[in-house]
Design a protein that fits this description.
Strand order of the largest sheet: 9-14-13-12-10-11
Number of strands: 23
Radius of gyration: 26 Å
CATH class of the largest domain: Alpha Beta
Distance between the termini: 56 Å
Strand content: 15-25%
CATH superfamily of the largest domain: Glycoside hydrolase, family 3, N-terminal domain
Oligomer: single chain
Largest sheet: 6 strands, mixed
Shape: globular
Number of domains: 3
């Protein structure tokens, strides 16, 4: 990294202070716990309350800012451009934990650079951002209609856990003394419905909490050491999460030994008053119960009502001091109270923001996320030398989709622009939208029936005269977004009608789906020769899509969720027992596209499966003609069990790259505890004796080799 000399001089200009006339909390040579205890002892009750308001005023006598948080899910939120990466569902589709960590590292570099620019020059223009970041979202994608599927890592807790650990580690850094950022896991827990989310009550058994709804949070806390968790709006079994002592204290802090703090979702205290209690609970009680349950950090209600809650005996000073200690410990570990010269991350220059290196990471993430769903007759890859005219069609061909937790992007590349950039000189590119993603129902704004048919006919005419028709359809924030669940799993508006018209005009039609949640489109699977899933792929997505279409990149993305064949396969959304038919583990009937599915332009052969627990190994060979990545997936199944068990359960995966003819031995750890289920009679995980199938393959529905082992 090139760092300007002036920047280094400024960064190193502040020296550590210590001595008899200095408050111990300002002395960086002292242990963190002693510094925190010293500052805590100096604070008044009112100042403690201020420090637990995430948007509180500055405590002037110590010059401690309280407004210290921001967002960075797939791009740091700022008032100027930052690098835009693919949405998290796209990152999950890479099945590449090292790449996810690289993305998170780039995000944290840019976040630190923004902080450094303000911290070292308080008079600088623009937004001032702190170092507590509200990411990642690791809620499980049980609900295919969920409006926030784009923010999460899919339907499987094992895959989500692996992604979460690496994302958290990338955000927080690897310095033994200081955190780069403090990651906040969202939204804890059992949160994947937007409709009435501020008063929703999820009824979940202890078994499914332990097996499905919590393991990825545990991974990110115990292994990833995430510094913060956000309590979600919903209740679990009648207890709102903001005041759920079992969730926030018994499990998180006592059982998992979480060292950081819990923050409410925005307005979390108010949901106790206006949502769950229906106005029967006052703010003093809501605040007192939240803090006593283990919610350490919140909104203005904490600053306003904590003093009264203490004076009325509803909140103990011991619990209040524990909450303040937890928040301050994270802030000290971030280096807020240290001279910049002693914090390695203070040397990250603002020049890193939107740098070519970060743009390259965004491009690689987009490339690896693209899933080849279907490729009949090997229509793909396209040979650019044989294409004189390409029709680039559909409402998303010339649009880059953002989400509400990314930043303001700089230069973005749409699919249309990417195809123009990667096609050979002289290739004619035709473009028509054909229709919109949604039909605007407002009077006077929706196109007439005649205009709509004319627009589709225009797109079909462009396809008819082209060597290939590339159709870009999917969803936008108008379909799936925070606060808005999807109404259907099919394509919205007239998009499927558009695809049918284009295919009728040109059988060499490729559809590129740009959505977050799964698209149930059986007609397209039955009729179209080629389908790609490209998600919302970030600032370089257009180039990545073009490179896959033209064979410059061999696709190897894999689905992180089930694509249901019919909406009738999906159980009611208030059913939280996933064995009722949710996810690949308990799906009834065949999916449209299976969890873990994804094709390649080459072929892979599996052989020599060896199962000698706790090790499983297999040899994978690229038996095709081009280099490519394979995602080797390990699933297990209990042949006989005392309780319903998954048909298959992911327990390992590895993305490997092989040249033509190359082979590699892939090894997985499979200790007996990965075969356990949660026994509600013992309130503990149990490994039953008996037979277990160990399966290796290319998806949950494409098992290449299996071996049965017996545990005694």
């Amino acid at each position: 990294m090139n760092i300007p000399t002036a920047w280094l001089v400024l960064a190193l200009s502040t020296v550590a202070v210590s001595g008899a006339d200095t408050e111990p909390f300002r002395d960086p040579s002292l242990p963190t716990d002693r510094r925190v205890a010293d500052l805590l002892a100096r604070l008044t009750l009112e100042e403690k309350a201020i420090l637990l308001n995430h948007r509180g005023p500055t405590i002037e006598r110590f010059q401690i800012r309280s407004d210290q948080w921001n967002q960075c899910l797939n791009g740091v939120k700022w008032d100027r451009p930052t690098t835009l990466f693919p949405t998290c569902i796209g990152l999950a589709a890479t099945w590449d934990t090292k790449l996810v960590r690289a993305v998170a590292t780039a995000l944290s570099d840019e976040a630190r650079a923004i902080y450094n620019g303000w911290h070292l020059d308080p008079n600088a223009a623009g937004e001032h951002k702190g170092l507590i970041y509200r990411a990642p979202v690791i809620n499980i994608g049980r609900n295919p209609y969920w409006g926030r599927n784009h923010e999460a890592f899919g339907e499987d807790p094992f895959l989500t856990g692996r992604m979460a650990v690496n994302y958290v580690q990338g955000l927080q850094g690897d310095d033994p003394k200081h955190l780069k950022l403090a990651a906040t896991l969202k939204h804890y827990a059992v949160n994947n419905v937007e409709t009435d989310r501020q008063k929703l009550n999820a009824r979940v058994s202890e078994r499914w909490l332990r097996e499905y709804w919590l393991p990825h949070f545990r991974d990110a806390v115990v292994e990833g050491h995430a510094q913060s968790l956000m309590a979600s709006y919903n209740a679990i079994n009648g207890t709102p999460n903001n005041i759920n002592h079992w969730l926030l204290t018994d499990v998180l802090k006592n059982e998992w030994h979480h060292e950081g703090f819990v923050v409410s979702d925005l307005g979390g205290v108010r949901t106790m008053v206006d949502g769950h209690s229906g106005g029967k609970m006052g703010f003093v009680d809501a605040v007192a119960q939240s803090v006593m349950a283990g919610c350490d950090f919140s909104d203005k209600e904490y600053e306003t009502y904590i003093p009264a809650a203490v004076r009325e005996g509803k909140l103990t000073l011991a619990r209040l001091d524990d909450a303040v200690t937890r928040v301050l410990t994270v802030r000290f570990r971030l280096g807020e109270f240290d001279p910049p010269s002693s914090v390695s991350y203070s040397r990250i220059s603002p020049e890193i923001i939107c740098s070519p290196a970060h743009r390259a990471v965004s491009l690689q993430a987009a490339r690896e996320s693209i899933v080849l769903l279907q490729n009949r007759g090997h229509l793909l890859p396209l040979n650019p030398a044989r294409l004189k005219r390409i029709a680039v069609l559909g409402p998303l061909a010339d649009q880059v989709i953002l989400n509400n937790y990314s930043g303001r992007p700089g230069r973005t590349v749409t699919a249309l622009q990417g195809i123009k950039d990667r096609a050979l000189p002289g290739t004619e590119i035709l473009h028509a939208r054909g229709c919109d993603v949604v039909i605007n129902s407002k009077a006077g704004t929706a196109p007439s029936e005649a205009d709509a048919r004319a627009a589709i006919a225009e797109a079909a005419a462009a396809a008819r005269g082209a060597d290939v028709a590339l159709v870009f359809v999917g969803t936008t924030a108008a379909v799936e977004h925070e606060g808005r669940d999807r109404k259907s799993l099919g394509l919205s508006g007239r998009q499927e009608e558009l695809v049918e018209a284009i295919f009728a005009a040109n059988p060499r039609t490729v559809v590129v789906e740009m959505s977050a949640g799964p698209l149930t489109v059986p007609w397209m699977k039955q009729h179209l020769p080629a389908i790609l899933q490209a998600w919302w792929p970030g600032e370089e997505g257009g180039h990545a899509i073009a490179e896959v279409l033209f064979g410059q990149v061999n696709p190897a993305g894999r689905l992180p969720h089930t694509v249901y064949a019919s909406e009738s396969q999906v159980p009611p959304l208030d059913e939280y027992d996933i064995s009722g038919g949710f996810t690949y583990m308990y799906l009834k009937g065949e999916p449209l596209f299976a969890f873990g599915h994804g094709l390649s332009y080459t072929r892979f052969k599996y052989s020599n499966l060896r199962v000698e627990l706790p090790r499983v190994s297999v040899i994978v060979k690229n038996s095709g003609d081009v280099a490519g990545d394979e995602v080797v997936q390990l699933y297990v199944h209990a042949a006989k069990s005392s309780v319903p068990r998954p048909a298959r359960e992911l327990r390992g995966f590895a993305r490997i790259r092989l040249q033509p003819g190359e082979r590699q031995t892939v090894t997985f750890d499979l200790p007996p505890e990965k075969l356990a289920f949660y026994d509600e009679t013992r309130h503990a995980f149990t490994v039953e004796t008996g037979a277990y199938d160990v399966c290796i393959g290319a998806s949950s529905a494409d098992v290449r080799l299996s071996h049965q082992v017996r545990l005694k």
